Amino acid sequence: MDRLVRGSTHQFSFIVTDASGAPVDIDVGTTATVTVYDAAGNNIVDEDASRLVGLTMVGHYNAQVVLNTGFGFGVFYSAVARATVDGIETKSIIATFDLDPGRTMGSVSDGAPNTETNFGTYLTETVDNYWKDSLILMVSGDLVGQVKRVSAYDGTTKKITVAGGFTVPPIEDDRFELLTR
Predict the structure, then answer these.
(1) Residue 44: helix, strand or coil by DSSP?
(2) pLDDT tens figures, 130-166
(3) Is the Cα torsion angle 76, 45, 70, 122 positive or negative in sign?
(4) 59 — alpha (psi -120 to 50), left (phi > 0) or beta?
(5) What φ, ψ does residue 97 adopt, rounded to 5°?
(6) Tens digit of pLDDT for each residue in 37-77?
(7) Predicted model pTM
(8) What does the alpha-carbon distance between residue 171 and residue 167 come to, in Å, rounded to a whole number?
(9) 20 to 30 Å CA-CA from 38: which of 6, 26, 143, 167?
(10) Which alpha helices (H) appear in the chain, and where do they start and end?
(11) CATH number for the domain including 30?
(12) 87-124: buried (b, 16+ CB within 10 Å) or exposed (e) per residue?
């Protein structure tokens, strides 16, 4: 079983086959999706699959799933590939996973204005100081590799305050990883 990171985008890949087991490409009369279910069988998300770009092999597909809203810690999930070829539906579990409770991905919002020490995010937690004392590692943009300690989090505005400040303000869509203590 895999341990994935909340807030990240994960690609689930699989091969679509016909009734004889031969790989087939999606065309008229063929559909493919990935559905993620929790352990209780609740449907968390459905994503259409597409042919993997750059591959010349027949039948190779993937679906990108953002592991954010609806996904929680302490829950096991199954990703199920469904394909319908010539009116016949097949299903197969292609992955099982849970979320690493110590890691969460996020991104910076426009924040109006963002500064070196205080900036808006697209995080979803509504509790003040939920992320306090976590480490924030910038993984994209001009701040890649910089790490700071979160000194405050506003659950209403979704703004993070960091101790010490980054070298420049983060900008919208800069990605980060929160590492909980």
Answers:
(1) strand
(2) 999 999 999 999 999 999 999 999 999 999 999 999 9
(3) positive
(4) left
(5) -160, 165
(6) 988 889 999 888 876 655 556 777 888 888 887 888 889 99
(7) 0.71
(8) 12
(9) 26
(10) none
(11) 2.60.40.10
(12) eeeeeeebbebbbbeebbbbbbbebeebeebbbbbebe
**What is the C-alpha radius of gyration for the chain, rounded to an integer number of angstroms?**
20
Count of Cβ atoms closer than 10 Å to residue 162 Cβ? 21
Q: Of 46, 80, 100, which residue is a domain's last?
A: 100
User: Where among 79, 100, 121 does a domain terminate?
Assistant: 100
How many structural domains does the chain have?
A: 2
Asked if 95 and 78 touch (Cβ cutoff 8 Å), the reply is yes
92 and 120 together in one domain: no
Residue-range definition of the domain harbouring residue 138: 108-179
Q: Report which DSSP code applies to 139.
A: -
Residue 133 corresponds to which tokens in the numbers above? 């004392």
In sequence order, the 6+-apart residues with CB closer than 8 A to the CB of 103 are 5, 6, 177, 178, 179, 180
Q: How far apart are CA 149 and CA 164, in angstroms?
A: 8
